[in-house]
């Protein structure tokens, strides 16, 4: 996945600038976001697919996929934006010559302060889309009410929200739950490190489960054909 240049006034805030210092107590991260193309997101369907006429249809979002997540800061006014780029768009984007790359990424306003539950909200996004030239089909991701969990104990490494997904004229709705980093898994291997447990690369406090049939490991893991995703509604902890 590639990160889009959204606006010359938007400056990517580097991780290092937030993590500098050696305080014994955990510093308040504010609205921190782990910026990476290697998030793993799970989509739980809450409304079945319907076409424009209101008839039932079967096309649905993938059960899980990779997700690019980035935060941008406008240094002139101190506001922030959250960018989301799902694999379903990023993988098809290079072949789409009719859609500007900026339309293939969802970009919405992000709060600069955490709420009472340690979430940073991004309530609305324009629809992100890609056109599949071979079929004339358009795939649309409409995110809403995204909330990044940014408590000092796990700053910016889980998020939740809503997705309206349209593919081949079929629209369905989902609850979104995601974590960083994306880690491959396979329960049949029978070890904790291959089943989202200790040694997997995840925060050991995360409550994560393996979704099979979705490859999302950061590193080459050809034998791991699943993806670790949050078990529960975010924040998903043991």
In words, what does this structure look like?
With 238 residues, the chain is mainly beta. The chain has one domain. 4% of the residues lie in helices and 41% in strands. It has two helices and 13 strands, in the order E-H-E-E-E-H-E-E-E-E-E-E-E-E-E. The strands form two sheets. Strands 1, 2, 3, 4, 5, 6, 7, 8, 9 and 10 form a ten-stranded antiparallel β-sheet that branches. Strands 11-13-12 form a three-stranded antiparallel β-sheet, with no helix packed on it. It is globular, with a radius of gyration of 18 Å. The protein starts with 9 loop residues before the first strand and ends in an 8-residue tail after the last strand. The relative contact order is 0.18.
Output the number of helix runs.
2
Detail the poorly predicted runs.
1-24
Structural class: mainly beta
Question: Which H/E pattern describes the elements?
Answer: EHEEEHEEEEEEEEE
Percentage of β-strand residues: 35-45%
Overall number of strands: 13
Q: In which range does the helix fraction lie?
A: under 10%
| End-to-end CA span | 31 Å
What do the pLDDT scores average to? 85
Please outline the major beta sheet: 10 strands, antiparallel
Determine Rg (CA atoms, Å).
Answer: 18 Å
- What count of structural domains? 1
Quickly list its features.
238 residues, mainly beta, 10-stranded antiparallel beta sheet, 3-stranded antiparallel beta sheet, disordered N terminus
């Amino acid at each position: 996945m590639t990160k889009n240049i959204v606006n010359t006034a938007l400056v990517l805030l580097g991780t290092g600038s937030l993590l500098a210092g050696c305080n014994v107590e955990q510093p308040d991260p504010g609205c921190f976001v782990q910026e990476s193309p290697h998030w793993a997101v799970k989509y739980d369907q809450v409304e079945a697919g319907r076409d424009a006429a209101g008839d039932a249809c079967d096309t649905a979002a993938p059960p899980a996929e990779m997700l690019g997540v980035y935060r941008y800061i406008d240094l002139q006014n101190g506001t922030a934006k959250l960018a989301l780029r799902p694999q379903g768009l990023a993988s098809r984007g290079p072949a789409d010559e009719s859609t500007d790359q900026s339309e293939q990424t969802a970009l919405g306003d992000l709060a600069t302060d955490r709420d009472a539950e340690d979430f940073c909200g991004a309530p609305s996004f324009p629809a992100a889309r890609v056109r599949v030239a071979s079929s004339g089909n358009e795939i649309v991701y409409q995110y809403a009410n995204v909330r990044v969990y940014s408590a000092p104990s796990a700053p910016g490494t889980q998020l939740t929200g809503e997705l309206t997904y349209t593919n081949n004229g079929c629209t369905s709705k989902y609850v979104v739950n995601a974590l960083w980093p994306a880690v491959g898994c396979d329960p049949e291997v029978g070890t904790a490190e291959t089943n989202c447990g200790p040694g997997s690369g995840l925060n050991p406090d995360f409550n994560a489960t393996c979704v099979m049939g979705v490859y999302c490991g950061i590193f080459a893991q050809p034998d791991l054909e699943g993806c670790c995703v949050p078990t529960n509604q975010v924040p998903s902890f043991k």
